[in-house]
Specification:
- The structure is a single chain.
- It is built from 5 helices and 37 strands.
- The protein has 647 residues and is mainly beta.
- The protein has a 22-stranded antiparallel β-barrel. The protein has a 5-stranded mixed sheet with strand order 3-9-10-7-8. Strands 4-5-6 form a 3-stranded antiparallel sheet, with no helix packed on it.
């Protein structure tokens, strides 16, 4: 592999992105210079200042949040119909992915250098992810069942939500929380690789304020072959199919008391390439994933009191090894007091994480964990103040883990308005993560256990300057994390196995620039993130952590009218080191995508998306040497669907 070739590609693709950015600006300027009057009331609007709850646990305007926050709302999610949450996240600022093939395949994502084990995922407030591996299966969550996604960047989430939030928090909200009227809809879609989606949804609302949303869909595709240059069974396409269901309901019992429940469930089958299978056998994995919750809430002018309980499920049977079933059960009490100045929140949390193993390989003599459950008891306290001239947020949290020592995390953030549309701010936060059960106890043909792992801890600093007006939101954020005992899977060439080990010191730092504009009919914007993920100790001191690209970016431009909207984007991911000593890397790539909606009638919408228009041959997971393997990503592909609504 030639470094000069990769460098020239990087320069060329960055030039392309720059050119697209200039084109976007010129188009916008042309649009504003027209003398024609535009009736904005008929156009689908972009919210530049939405309300979020993930960043503070209370409803807060994005313009008052101190940590970097991103909202992918229902309008934007329409562009990803028939796809999964992973496809949405990979195109958000600071994200990159590592995926073993096409839709439904095993995957990992990285946010500002933190991998998915260190980014907490919530579904309607319920922790979601595997207790064994520590990773959330976002390639299995369908976009069609989701109302919006909120992303909180950085470690401030640790002092609000506890372990696993060192790198940030992603919260997925099911459809149905904002129903305005009773309606029904059906969706049918088709795409490349025999991709089919069928879905139905029903939403009910009455004058008393009761709401009920029910939806179900099926997503299936013949897929692509996961591994390149394979023979036999590994040469065939690796398909994916899933049946998905969602529920969201709330009922006001009185003027002050509301009860409700939510649920999201996916049952899927994914084929994959596994050379250890004999002739005539196809490797596949069955999975069940999701979360359910119930809540009751009391609210008056001065106080909100919310009691919630829930459970998430992650069940995996890959037909090769054992069957794992992870459950995370939790109960949460949150109280919010509105003070004469600001508001105070306090609460308590109980969480039980457990794994059940169905022993399909008794001859291994290593089919169980030494410990297969743990309980975390937590208490937290926070204060928030939002004034016209400044914003303040402070949080502290105490977690008592039955398997490890107790941990206390805290965060403090402050932002000041230098002008009506200009804000400057900073925050400091501490974070931690307890090792997963796989990190501690897994023993197999590929892994060696390490019961001596220590808890990861981090100190984090963030600085930002932000411009927010009726036309645009632009933010430059600098971030710095010093991580102690970062857990990494290291390969031992003498045993040909991996083992989780602590890296004494690591640094994750960089900056992110985002800018989103709406000028009459034109939407345009760009995002760029530079990430330095560096080991500061050990044999690989000064080297970049694997699968963390230094450069990621996206440029987009769109046009919206009463009858249609369309968007074109260019997505760039820089070269990625794939071994700890940085001796080999995966090439950078740029993808061009286009998506749009055509409103055929008030009831009928036609949605289409084309990905990788230039048919770039790229990979996000590739190894070299004696056991070389390259996981494929799809070339040019499309998906189109029709949705009919009855009101």
């Amino acid at each position: 592999m030639s470094v000069s070739r990769a460098s020239s590609r990087t320069y060329l693709r960055l030039s392309i992105l720059s050119a697209l950015g200039l084109l976007a600006v010129n188009t916008a300027m042309a649009a504003t210079s027209e003398n024609t009057s535009i009736n904005d009331s008929n156009l689908p609007q972009v919210e530049l200042d939405e309300i979020v709850v993930t960043a503070t646990r209370t409803p807060t305007k994005v313009s008052n949040v101190i940590a970097q926050t991103r909202v992918v709302n229902s309008k934007e999610l329409k562009r990803y119909q028939g796809q999964t949450v992973m496809e949405v996240l990979r195109r958000q600022p600071g994200f990159s992915i590592k995926q073993d093939g096409g839709m439904g395949q095993s995957s990992n994502f990285y946010l500002r250098g933190y991998d998915s084990k260190r980014v907490l995922v919530l579904i309607d407030g319920v922790r979601y992810g595997s207790m064994s591996s520590g990773q959330p299966a976002l390639t299995l969550l369908p976009v069609d069942q989701i109302d919006r996604i909120e992303i909180l960047y950085g470690a401030s989430g640790s002092s609000i939500y506890g372990s696993d939030a060192m790198g940030g928090v992603i919260q997925v909200f099911t459809k149905g929380s904002n129903i305005e009227q009773t309606n029904f809809s059906v969706t049918a879609g088709v795409g490349s690789n025999d991709h089919y989606v069928y879905g139905v949804a029903a939403q009910f609302a009455n004058e008393a304020g009761a709401k009920l949303s029910l939806s179900a869909n099926r997503n299936q595709t013949k897929g692509i072959t996961a591994l390149e240059n394979r023979s036999g069974n590994d040469k065939d396409d690796d398909g994916f199919e899933s049946n998905n269901f969602a529920l969201n309901t709330s009922v006001p019992l009185t003027d002050n008391i509301t009860i409700g429940a939510t649920g999201l469930f996916s049952k899927s089958n994914t084929e994959f390439d596994n050379y250890s299978f004999g002739p005539g056998q196809n490797a596949e994995i069955d999975q069940e994933n999701g979360a359910v919750s119930a809540f009751s809430q009391y609210e008056n002018d001065k106080m909100t009191l919310r009691l919630s309980t829930g459970q998430s499920l992650d069940k995996v049977d890959n037909k090769v090894g054992d069957e794992f079933e992870t459950k995370q059960k939790q109960a949460n009490l949150l109280s919010i007091y509105r003070l004469p100045t600001g508001q105070l929140q306090a609460g308590a949390e109980w969480l039980k994480q457990e794994v059940d193993i169905n022993d399909n390989t008794p001859s291994n003599n290593n089919d169980s964990y030494k410990i297969n459950d743990r309980i975390i008891k937590s208490g937290f306290l926070g204060y928030q103040l939002n004034k016209e001239a400044y914003d303040l947020q402070a949080n502290v949290r105490f977690d008592e883990n039955s398997q490890f020592d107790s941990e206390t995390t805290y965060s403090l953030g402050y932002a000041v308005k230098l002008a009506p549309s200009l804000r400057l701010g900073t925050s400091f936060a501490t974070g931690y993560r307890a090792p997963s059960l796989n990190d501690l106890y897994i023993e197999s043909a590929y892994y060696v256990p390490n019961e001596n792992l220590e808890v990861e801890k981090s100190k984090n600093l963030e600085l930002f300057v932000e411009s927010n007006s009726d036309l645009q939101t632009t933010r430059l954020t600098g971030f710095y994390s010093r991580v102690k005992n970062l857990i990494s899977n290291e390969y031992d060439p003498s045993t040909f196995k991996y083992q989780a080990t602590n890296i004494d010191q690591a640094e994750l730092s960089g900056y992110s620039l985002t800018s989103d504009w709406q000028i009459n009919n034109v939407l345009l914007g760009s995002q760029y993130t530079y990430t330095n993920a560096e080991e500061l100790s050990g044999a690989n001191k000064g080297k970049q952590l694997v699968y963390r690209p230094e450069h990621t970016g996206l440029v987009y431009i769109g046009y919206q009218a009463a009858e249609f909207d369309i968007r074109a984007e260019a997505e760039y991911v820089g070269k990625t080191y794939n071994v700890s000593d940085n001796s080999t890397f995966i090439d950078d790539y740029t993808l061009f995508n286009i998506s749009g909606n055509y409103y055929v009638s008030p009831n009928l919408t036609w949605t289409s998306r084309i990905n990788n228009i230039t048919n770039v041959d790229y990979s996000t997971n590739e190894s070299f040497g004696q056991y070389a393997s390259r996981y494929n990503q799809d070339g040019t592909n499309f998906f189109t669907s029709l949705t009919y609504n009855w009101y």
